[in-house]
Specification:
Order of helices and strands: HHHHHHHHHHHHHHHHHHH
Strand content: under 5%
Structural class: mainly alpha
Number of helices: 19
CATH class: Mainly Alpha
Number of domains: 1
Number of strands: 0
CATH topology: Growth Hormone, Chain: A
Distance between the termini: 8 Å
Radius of gyration: 21 Å
Length: 422
């Protein structure tokens, strides 16, 4: 596979990285931190029920992404036009965020809010498929690791910057700005429009400066759907032709499941094993994201120097080593040290995974391959959290529960050695 750098050059690279800064607040601020807590406490008013409903909605949206991503990716490749799909899903994410303004604190709003956030999450994930698929044609192969790492670092920092603005300017501001009514939770509901505005303002340069692959030749939608589905079926049937992609996606399915479980349940582990309060957990989460951004930025050169496969091996070894150190730790200070060290490897593993997929994807099949890439990240996402929960309940020890993550990382690391990147 060869990759041609577009005429826009540096402007295209900056615009591409800026889009990661622009869209990351949706999962960070809406899905993970502030709005998730508001839904549980402000709308539902029952911690257990709210958490369960929110988790089910996110799980359902992840399953929908797993089913749609390979299909729509193949159709986009057949059409030769990925930008309209990227724009449509970006607009969908913006619309979902803006409409959250109407999520008043009333249990009667719970179901439509779940549907809205679920569809917004689908739009975010699907936009990411087409965003990632631009990487192989954005720059030379020997610079892909650098650009992917820069993008991931911008994403972490963008999510944190928007979170800081939301907390300081809206949630904690006294009095609430713009005459927002605290009794109606308007200072929290305004976070949705903030995230939407953030994506609209910082995301638009991507559509101006990054070229459509192949010039964006038009193909009739019916023809694109037919050809895309035929090609996707052929790809699945002829998996042996893409053996390296197959092994990589299986490996990624395992180690990313472990990594996402660390992110998703790290706060719960901190609370149960070290009795950390909510404020301290939030501070730890922010610090973890900062070290992940630093690791993604620093490892960007390592990816281009050693190659994405070796970078992934080093990153997974780092996750295993620091993860074991956290499990052994009995003092909260050592937990902090181990957690921040672990963050240094989270960003590189994610960035190098994207870089390796970009190198493995055959020319003209980038969106389809990144659709399968998205599928591998969602298909088994339930395994890690479920196993942690079962073992914790059976043993009563959260450390033994979290220890089940290590085999995911170890087996995923082992399967990486079967991948032979070009």
């Amino acid at each position: 596979m060869t990759a041609a750098r577009p005429a826009q050059g540096r402007r295209a690279l900056v615009a591409w990285c800026l889009y990661d800064w622009a869209n990351s607040p949706f999962p960070t601020v809406v899905v993970t931190f502030v709005f998730a807590a508001y839904f549980t406490k402000g709308i539902v008013g029952d911690d257990a029920l709210g958490t369960g409903l929110w988790s089910q909605a996110m799980g359902a949206s992840g399953l929908l992404v797993a089913l749609l991503a390979p299909v729509i990716g193949a159709i986009a490749d057949a059409a030769g036009r990925a930008r309209p799909w990227l724009m449509a899903f970006t607009v969908g994410t913006v619309a979902a965020g803006a409409l959250l303004w109407f999520a008043a604190p009333d249990p009667a709003n719970a179901w439509w809010v779940l549907v809205l956030v679920g569809l917004g999450n689908v739009s975010f994930e699907m936009a990411t498929v087409f965003y990632n698929a631009q990487l192989p044609r954005l720059t030379e192969p020997e610079r892909m690791g650098r650009v992917s790492g820069w993008g991931w670092a911008c994403g972490y920092l963008g999510g944190l910057a928007c979170l800081a603005v939301a907390l300081v300017a809206l949630v904690q501001a006294e009095p609430a700005p713009f005459g927002l009514d605290r009794d109606a939770a308007e200072h929290v509901r305004a976070i949705g429009p903030l995230v939407a505005l953030w994506l609209a303002v910082f995301g638009w340069p991507l559509f101006i400066f990054v070229a459509e692959p192949g010039g964006g030749a038009r193909v009739a939608l019916r023809t694109a759907v037919r050809d895309g589905l035929v090609r996707l079926i052929a790809t699945i049937r002829q998996a042996r032709r893409y053996r390296d992609v197959e092994w990589f996606l299986i490996a990624k399915m395992l180690y990313i499941d472990g990594l996402n479980t660390i992110f998703g349940l790290g706060g719960v582990y901190a609370a149960t094993a070290f009795a950390m309060g909510v404020d301290e957990i939030l501070l730890f989460g922010i610090a973890l994201n900062v070290t992940a951004a630093a690791g993604a930025f620093a490892f960007a050169w390592v990816d281009d120097w050693l190659g994405p496969k070796r970078s992934l091996v080093l990153g997974n070894l780092g996750l295993i080593a620091t993860g074991l150190a956290i499990l052994i730790a009995r003092d909260v200070t050592w937990f902090w040290i181990g957690g921040l060290a672990l963050g240094l490897f989270i960003g590189p593993v994610q960035a190098s995974s994207r870089s390796l997929m970009a190198r493995l994807a055959p020319a003209g099949m980038e969106a389809e391959m990144f659709g399968l890439y998205a599928f591998s990240g969602k298909a088994t996402a339930f395994l890690g959290p479920t196993l942690v929960g079962w073992v914790t309940l059976a043993t009563g020890d959260p450390r033994l529960g979290m220890a089940t993550i290590v085999p995911f990382l170890v087996v995923g690391l082992g399967l990486l050695f079967l991948v032979r990147p070009r």
